[in-house]
Amino acid sequence: MPKDIIIAIDGYSACGKSTTARLLAEKLEYVFIDSGAMYRATTLYFLQHKINFNRMDEVIKALENIHIHFEYNKETKRPDTYLNGEYVEEEIRSLAVSECVSEVSAISAVRRSMVAQQQMMGKNKRIVMDGRDIGTHVFPDAELKIFMTADLEVRVQRRVLELQQKGHTYIDPSEVRQNLLHRDYIDSHRTDSPLTKAADAIELDTTYYTIPEQVSIVYQWAMERIQGTTNGNL
Ligand code: DC
User: Fold this and answer.
1) Closest ligand 1 atom, CA of 13?
2) How many domains does the chain have?
3) Which residues in 103-131 are b (16+ Cβ under 10 Å) and which e?
């Protein structure tokens, strides 16, 4: 008898986590949640309202006024992010947000709020969530945990291409590289739930894989767990 599972995908920035998670969820008819989009939307709110990240009273008050939800976009086949009812999918991917998101996501009060919402989203299982602490913290009992990696230069190329496809005309690869390195450092060195590979996660190095190849690998791992042909992680 097939069972409903939770799939957690963690890893460094620009390894293809969200793309893989989204396509995997589509194949399995599961819900896909890009947890990074929630930290990005929170960062956008903080920037728009000039919240001082170092003042906990300001941060906690702001968190009470932040409501994030996702709506499936039939044209793009992706969930769009909404902040307090407003479409923010493009704005949350701007460099201004990317430059501050790791600082904001290192704040414990922010993490507590996001993690509580993420756990609610997974209460009925049938979910694929990607992020930095999904297998270690949000869903420590997830049936399938994947830790994705890729060479830095490949990640830079992928992020540059993604920005170009979104219509950005001038992109400086060294700026993109700096941003990735900066975020990787803060994400893996913060005190509250830093990015680490869960002991029971399977590592997937995507450097030499195409998107369809990596989706097909994780789909096979997922099906083994759904059909009960594998006990836990490898
Ligand atoms: O996946 P992304 O690059 O859009 O995530 C943006 C930032 O959000 C990332 O630099 C770290 C933070 N993040 C986090 O701390 N925990 C998560 N579960 C997801 C993202």
Assistant:
1) 3
2) 1
3) bbbbbeebbebbbebbeeebeeeebbbbb
> What CATH number corresponds to the domain at position 218?
3.40.50.300
Copy the structure tokens of residue 75. Answer: 């044209």
pLDDT at 232: 56
- Report the alpha-carbon distance of residue 186 to residue 50 in Å, rounded: 22
Question: Is 233 part of any domain?
Answer: no
Range of the domain at 96: 6-226
| Residue 232, domain member (yes or no) | no
Hey, is 145 helix, strand or coil? strand
Q: Is the dihedral of CA 66, 163, 71, 129 positive or negative?
A: negative
Q: State the distance from the centre of ligand 1 to the C-alpha of 214, rounded, in angstroms.
A: 21
pLDDT at 162: 87
In a domain, 115, yes or no: yes
Tell me, yes or no, whether 125 lies in a domain. Answer: yes
Q: Please, are residues 130 and 35 in contact by the beta-carbon 8 Å criterion? A: yes
pLDDT band at 58; cut points 50, 70, 90: very high
To the question of pTM greater than 0.85 for the whole model, the response is yes
In tens, the pLDDT along 102-159 reads: 999 999 999 999 999 999 999 999 999 999 999 999 999 999 999 999 999 999 999 9
List residues near ligand 1 (CB under 6 A). Answer: 13, 35-36, 39-40, 101-102, 105, 131-134, 183, 187
